[in-house]
């Protein structure tokens, strides 16, 4: 039998993803203004080019009906680029973001487009949860999964209000949202992307805030 919910989640997931890229383009266009220093201009211009490339890659995936090929992904570069993209929104919300990346983080096999999408979903949730300010710590570290296989763990830890217990128990389910204009696809998409990479998404939450970890095979 066709899994209608899954198919709808995938379709809306692509729409959600396109929406993300278009809103990033809008943010970047707003940042490119007269008087900007040369290096900032180059940085935002490069990021805009990447957003456009991502959009055309996504369109190609839809057209071909298949995912892009796997490649070696430099998580450090990816997280730094996302930081530049998310910084204006974080500043507006008063979210102090700390990015802790070790110097010797190895590249991992994966899909840059999808990993960026997954990280961005979790990053956006953290900012949305701390709209009156807070702290977001993003770390990437070498570790081992419970069976002793090498993994890279990328963790987003915020000190927002936490995820309500009744939401937490259904978090893997598409379309679960507590937001008026939410689609409820961010976390389920992030989880399915982690799983597509042979990894997992580990979520914990409490009165202290929320922590979301991508455990990805190294
Ligand atoms: N960092 C977080 N802090 C608090 N609640 C969160 C956080 N991340 C996710 N949530 C909760 O999980 C729900 C589902 O998130 P998500 O799948 O991204 O969908 P959406 O953001 O569209 O609501 C959110 O509506 C929110 O209630
Ligand atoms: Mg979300």
What can you tell me about this protein's structure?
This protein is of the alpha+beta class and 218 residues long. The chain contains 6 helices and 7 strands, in the order H-H-E-H-E-E-H-E-E-H-H-E-E. The strands form 2 sheets. It has a 5-stranded mixed sheet with strand order 2-4-5-7-6, with helices on one face. The protein has a two-stranded antiparallel ribbon with strand order 1-3. Helix 3 (75-93) runs parallel beside helix 4 (112-129) and helix 4 (112-129) packs antiparallel against helix 6 (186-196). Magnesium ion binds next to helix 4.
Tell me the number of structural domains: 1
Number of strand elements? 7
Specify the biggest β-sheet. 5 strands, mixed
- CATH top level? Alpha Beta
For this structure, the CATH topology is: Heat Shock Protein 90
User: For the record, what is the CATH homologous superfamily label?
Assistant: Histidine kinase-like ATPase, C-terminal domain
Number of helical segments with 4 or more residues = 6
Name the overall outline: globular
What separation lies between the terminal Cα atoms? Answer: 36 Å
Helix content: 40-55%
- Approximately how much beta-strand content do the residues carry? 15-25%
